[in-house]
């Protein structure tokens, strides 16, 4: 499975992490490609303070309680656990890294920095490719 | 066709419904998987009052008139008609249902509640899989 | 590669253009299908003045400088260059064109106007299909 992660809002990243968990449970390999806002959200310094929702910002408190009741941890904890259990590689788009002036060490769980052709090549060969 | 519907804004859901109509016209089976905001938007109590656009909120009036001129009904009417004409199944992610404290009966046109592995399994076997 | 472009924010369209460039570099054919906000953003009169980001609007200045440092041009320049170098076709969803009261001539780089079944048919036969 290839996930091209353009978005960086914590709700969409929670959706990403849930899908990654499902794929790992099915023994699928997962390659995540971080583009602009995905890279921003994965910056270690932003992990916890990046809390703006993608929609219905006025429901933040209700959603936060609902997710707790549903037993869902923050997206980065779910992703970390999935990466420990299965094969999950996290690649950073080089242009996005440059735009945020970030090196590989600044980015949560990141494995390497890649170019656009590598994203396309991976998506072409994947059984599932989604743009998030 | 598998549509993983994370978003719940009425404009993106209109896009979803137009694609579902197209697939039904081509005799394709469609499986819709509702994630966080998708589930929220499909709550029967929210259908009509969930009007916030995904972008350019200042164009709401102009867009509303434009869509009327283009002959487009609201997304939920287009979807209902497509479901009557073809094979359209609507699945709800269990974690999303719990987060909104909703049961199957609360959710518009919903057929069943599923887990993340079922979403991935369906996407893997689909000719088209899109994340909306 | 088929890109179903629903969104019209310049940041998501930059992501689109980067992926198109990558596909062209790999000699892949690209078919872009503009839906609602995609069509709006491609209106020639909107190209340069459509500057609202999809998220973190407060970072507009920082992002703009970061993108300049990363050597990235605006999305429409990257797309134009990719279309000159490779096979990139741009199709407009008929309903979206009507909603914005636009003809083919009003839309940047557009090749033709199509219906929803043509989008689905193209996605079904593509090696990669993404919803942006």
Account of the protein in words:
- The structure is a homotrimer of 132-residue chains.
- With 132 residues, chain A is of the alpha/beta class.
- The first copy, chain A, has one domain: 3-Layer(aba) Sandwich (Hypothetical Protein Ychn, Chain: A), CATH 3.40.1260.10.
- In chain A, 45% of the residues lie in helices and 16% in strands.
- Chain A contains 6 helices and 5 strands.
- Chain A has a 5-stranded parallel sheet with strand order 4-3-2-1-5, with helices on both faces.
- In chain A, helix 5 links the parallel strand 3 (88-93) and strand 4.
- In chain A, helix 1 (10-25) packs parallel to helix 4 (75-85).
- The longest helix of chain A has 16 residues, at 10-25.
- The two termini of chain A are 13 Å apart.
- The relative contact order of chain A is 0.25.
- The model of chain A has no long low-confidence stretch (mean pLDDT 97).
- Chains A and B meet through helix 1, helix 3 and strand 5 of A and helix 2, helix 5, helix 6 and strand 5 of B.
